[in-house]
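Figure 3 (text version): structure tokens given as input.
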């Protein structure tokens, strides 16, 4: 979920239920009619969110448009709270399931005590069957976690964040005087590079940046689904174009790798540069270890050439990929998030190949 949140008053559910009659709730698949108010909410609680995101959420997603849940004070047309369910297709051993991502949870600051917060979330989760979804999932932040737990959110696993430092002066200056950091930064950087897998790994193929997300991505997606024994979200070309290329929030970039003499791709990575010049790797998939090495090595080279502070990758705790990233000198940041779900899925959610691209932001 987004950063906008609240803390429920100690009176808890009982107090929230007493005041729910003060608010009315609707579900709509046409949020554009409330667009001005929703954009003002974003400006207040999610600064930097472009207004174009509203249309993006409703058009282009292969799984369908997002459903919006809005709370109003009785007798008023003013929105006092919002929540969304963004549909998502996932696959497990040949089965296709339609699930939904809970997000955009925002409540007007005036109503965060005895307000519509708890009932708003309940209204959205109660729509699970009506929307034809197998289950809902979310990554709640600290301020919304207690409310999520009250309405029945359970946790699948923790998500760990690993980082590959690139600008060592930036990090050393946090602990050392400026001159000392300047002198030591090249030394530490050289040690990281020499000891990293990027120095000695080999990949008999090519890695290139592209914006051509076409048929070859669909061919790769079919191969990936055939070999994966994990739960995996839709990665068709149609989905990738909508999720990344059409997304107004960030400028996403694609890397593809190919074996020597092979026209088809063997893997890809999606990444973007965010605040403080950090690179987030949103997704990275490969059908062989050599291709994975090639992608990580190229990402590291891009980050270094563009003066980035670090590369970041998020995945479920214990992900096998982390062992390989450690060889490229990715470090566990000790920052963790909780991946939660609501409903009664009949698949083992602990076997989810979850990445940043499976979230709604």
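Below: residues designed for each position.
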């Amino acid at each position: 979920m987004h950063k906008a949140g609240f803390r429920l008053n100690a009176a808890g559910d009982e107090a929230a239920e007493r005041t729910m009659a003060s608010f009315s709730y609707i579900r709509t698949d046409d949020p554009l009619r409330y667009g001005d108010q929703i954009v003002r909410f974003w400006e207040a609680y999610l600064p930097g969110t472009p207004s174009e995101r509203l249309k993006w959420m409703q058009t282009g997603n292969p799984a369908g448009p997002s459903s919006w849940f809005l709370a109003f004070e009785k007798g008023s047309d003013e929105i006092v709270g919002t929540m969304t369910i963004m549909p998502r297709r996932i696959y497990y051993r040949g089965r296709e399931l339609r699930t939904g991502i809970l997000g955009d949870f925002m409540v007007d600051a005036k109503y965060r005590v005895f307000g519509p917060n708890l009932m708003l979330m309940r209204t959205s989760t109660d729509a699970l069957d009506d929307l034809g979804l197998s289950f809902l999932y979310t990554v709640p932040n600290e301020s919304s976690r207690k409310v999520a737990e009250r309405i029945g959110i359970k946790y699948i696993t923790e998500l760990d964040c690993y980082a590959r430092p690139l600008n060592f002066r930036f990090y050393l200056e946090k602990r050392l005087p400026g001159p000392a950091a300047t002198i030591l930064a090249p030394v530490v950087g050289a040690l990281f590079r020499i000891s990293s897998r990027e120095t000695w790994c080999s990949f008999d193929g090519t890695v290139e940046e592209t914006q051509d997300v076409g048929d070859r991505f669909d061919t790769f997606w079919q191969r990936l689904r055939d070999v994966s024994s994990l739960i995996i979200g839709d990665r068709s070309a149609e989905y990738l174009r909508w999720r990344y290329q059409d997304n107004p929030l960030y400028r996403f970039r694609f890397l593809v790798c190919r074996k020597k003499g092979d026209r088809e791709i063997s893997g890809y990575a999606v990444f973007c540069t965010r605040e403080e010049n950090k690179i987030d790797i949103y997704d990275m998939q490969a059908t062989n270890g050599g291709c994975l090495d090639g992608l990580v090595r190229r990402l590291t080279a891009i980050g270094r050439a563009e003066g980035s502070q670090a590369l970041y990758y998020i995945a479920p705790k214990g992900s096998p990929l982390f062992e390989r990233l450690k060889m490229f000198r990715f470090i566990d940041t000790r920052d963790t998030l909780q991946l939660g779900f609501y409903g009664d899925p009949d698949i083992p959610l602990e076997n989810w190949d979850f990445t940043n691209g499976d979230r709604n932001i």
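The chain has a mean pLDDT of 89.
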